[in-house]
Amino acid sequence: MLTKEVRQTILELSKNGKSCRVISRLLGISRNTVRTVLRQGAEIPSSEKESSSAELLPVVKEVYLRCQGNAVRVQEILKEEYDTDIAYSTLTRLIQEAELRAPVKRVGEYVFEPGKEMQHDTSPHWVMLYDRKIKAQCASLIFGYSRQLFMQYYPCFTRFEAKTFLKSALEFMKGSCQCCVIDNTSVILCAGSGKDAVISPEMATFSRMFGFEFIAHRINHADRKGKVERPFYYIETNFLPGRAFEDWDDLNAQAKKWCVEYANKKEKRVLGASPDEVFIKEKPYLVPLPEILPPIYEHYQRIVDPKAYINLDTNRYSVPEKLIGKTLDVHKHPEEVRIFYRHQEIAVHPRLAEKRQGRSTLKGHHTRLYAKETNEALKKTEESLRCCHEILDAYVGKLKKHVRGSGVRQLNRLLSFKHTYPSEAFISAIKKASHYGLYDLNRLEELIIKYVAGNYFNLNEETEL
Hints:
Blueprint (H helix, E strand, L loop, with lengths): L3 H12 L4 H8 L3 H10 L16 H10 L4 H11 L6 H10 L19 E13 L2 E12 L5 E6 L4 H15 L5 E4 L6 E3 L6 E2 L1 H10 L2 E4 L9 H14 L8 H16 L11 H8 L15 E6 L5 E4 L2 E4 L8 E6 L3 E6 L2 E7 L8 E2 L8 H17 L4 H13 L5 H13 L2 H14 L4 H16 L9
Helix pairs in contact: 2-3, 4-5, 12-14, 13-15, 15-16
């Protein structure tokens, strides 16, 4: 739209005898526009026109309340019940003019200097692990200035996993910012919220070790850590689709590779460069890592149960049998469980982090008592069966080959047949079963009963009364 000054210029040029063609060439506007201005004058004509859609305003108010503020549903009802096809943009303008919706509030932007702030949060994601969908906790850390991102996945997220992740993230970043913004999670806080939040002493000690402090934003103010909130959607829609993982190590290895090769190399519009390029400027301002990084572990004391196991996080880990009833020191590390007795390491188990009610047994910790007793009982049963008849000896050997396992149950049953039924009927049935390759003990017992009935009872003669 032409300004009033331009319109006055057109009128002055026309009074001085300039043609429409000349005025159009001088001002860079079309001749039709020049003619329109000469016809209308210097005043800008009012462009406010009474819209026919304004008549629908009372109807829109009624339908809007009925639909509980759903503008899409309002548009559908207007078309179905009132035979009015109104554009969605026009409908939203009417809703705003009628003040049915609260006006959109202006949002601010948090801008940080290099090395000033980093943000940390977690989010549950469904991942394809072990050929099935599993809910995992995605933990991420992002630097506020460069948007440098690091993420990992865990079966659950406790303070132990929080320290494990933050250490890995700061090693990945090769430094830390001065503060870390978090939400009001009980994983890091022990009381309060927002500015009144009390950081857990365990986590406060961890942060001092790496030279930063935790800051919790006020409740319902998630925009304060929006830089770490937004990437979760990016991860769900870019990293996870079409990927399957063999185990947790494979999942986290691919997650780290994705951060290095894709997420931190992709140019961001808000930065005008990739996070890797901006991170070069931020790196000199970071708090350097400690010269010696402390190991992340938790200490427990456990009493060895009668089965020579200690219990930790619903899982069981074996120890030597001689320590039954003793109190041991257990160090839980991210990847392994170390067990000590009187300051001497006696066992190192892989940590069963993703399992519940799992069991880890190391070779040499337990004698096979059950197997030993079973073998002795089997040996005694065979000795009772053999050396009575050569046909029975051959049948026992073939029976053991036809059954699964050691055949303890079958040999015990065969021995009970020997003790229960007459030996002549038993051996005769064994001969016939061996001839026809019959090793079903139920059918063998039926065969023995038939021999017993034929030899000891006259079933064909009628009893005379």
